[in-house]
Amino acid sequence: MKPFYFLLLSFFTTFNLNAQITSLESAMPSVNNPKAVVKHKSYILEYSERDEQAWWVVYRLCPIELNKGFKRADNFRPDSLVLSGSANNKDYIHSGYDRGHLKPANDSKTSAIDMSESFYYSNMSPQNPSFNRGIWKSLEEQVQEFAEKNKELWVVTGPVLRVGLKQIGENQVSVPEYYYKILLDNTPPEIKAIAFVLPNKDSQAPLESFVCSVDAVENLTNIDFFPKLDDKTEIAIEATTNISKWFGNAPTSASNLTFIGNTNSLVFHKATCKNANCKNCTIRFKTARGAIKAGYHACSQCNP
To answer: Residues 40, 94, 101, 269: which is the catalytic one?
Structure first.
């Protein structure tokens, strides 16, 4: 699989119809192995035994759930519902990686059970500390802000898994290079969705600077997201982009980002450069320094 550097993927559409997402089961992505699907009270996951973590986790997030008073539990433990056995504490101890939540503890405040279940190792993935405590945390907080503004969100999140990743622990837990998070606002009349893919490392770039289509997310993960949506809606939201419907006109919005990166060549250009109009020129940066830090190098023609 070809590496992707610093991607944020976003897709949006508006329809006057009621798509068929009404439960956790209906919000599930495509399934590789039905026997590896684990259902907890507030989230569902599909476990990858090869990688000792979930392919994906899906859950529902509503504003009222963010205001519950249940405190963080911190009772990390194996998940007995994983038939093949899940990762455990020995896999992570002294590894140098954080036990990164896929469904955040702060999104699990509906009850003491929900909070406790968020600490199963099936909901963990090895994350660089600077990533877990930095941009990933920022994304989790941003998702909560989105939830406050919408009636409900359906969230699918997980690592980008492939053969050949670095492994840690006696159970050989894979260390992902990238993570994704996809949100669906399924409340008519404005049905919209947005997705993010971020590398497992520190970043100072604004979240809304990494924009492209949901097709790229599915190509990257080989997962079909929200397959229960009617075909017309699914095709439309995968083909369109409008991050302003989520982020509005904040100072860090894409309209203020003046450098554009080519995700294929890893070259970044001035927005006015003639080479910035290619189909792979989908990543936006506020500063040249941010582009360089993300692994891109400057165009030799426009010298950004």
So the answer is: 101
